[in-house]
Write a structure and sequence with these properties.
Blueprint lengths: L1 H15 L12 H4 L1 H16 L5 H14 L6 E9 L2 E8 L10 H16 L3 E12 L6 E11 L8
Antiparallel strand pairs: 1-2, 2-4, 3-4
Helix pairs in contact: 1-3
């Protein structure tokens, strides 16, 4: 039973390891991700030696993982169509994040460009844009909101 838990834990560490690319490329796993594989095996060995593979420690680790959720996207993006060619873009950063504080403007522009391209428009005009911090309990988070108007080509009016 202990060996099965140990193997399951080792597999989970390898699966969520940031540099692990074997999910996409099975054959190149050992060539491309020796570092994460060695780190995962070392982590399992250390946890076993320190007796951290007890159910209470594993439950605490799963709880921390559930709260932090490192695989979730950093920004939640909401797009609302207010009128034909007029959109509101709302961004909310996840509550526990490492980095990404200055990304809101870049993501806003990227989403606006994608909306313009998807609709066959030449570009967009930014009507308003604001950034702020939403003070919620227990963790505050960054927010951004803006409105855009999609525009047709100014040079080729027939497009």
């Amino acid at each position: 039973m202990k060996r099965a838990v140990l193997l399951l834990f080792a597999f989970a560490v390898l699966l969520v390891s940031p540099g692990c690319s074997w999910v996409r490329n099975h054959g190149d796993f050992l060539q491309e991700s020796n570092g994460p594989a060695a780190g995962g095996i070392g982590l399992v060995w250390m946890a076993r030696q320190l007796q951290y593979l007890k159910p209470e420690y594993l439950a605490g680790g799963l709880l921390a993982y559930g709260i932090y959720d490192p695989l979730a996207p950093t920004w939640e993006i909401r797009v609302t169509e207010l009128d034909t060619g007029h959109h509101r873009i709302g961004l909310n950063m996840k509550r526990l994040a490492t980095g990404g504080d200055g990304e809101a403007r870049q993501i806003f522009v990227r989403v606006a460009q994608a909306l313009a391209e998807k609709g066959g428009y030449a570009g967009f005009d930014e009507l308003r844009y604001t950034e702020g911090i939403e003070s919620t309990r227990p963790f505050a988070r960054r927010t951004a909101m803006g409105e855009i108007r999609l525009i047709k080509s100014r040079h080729f009016m027939a497009l």
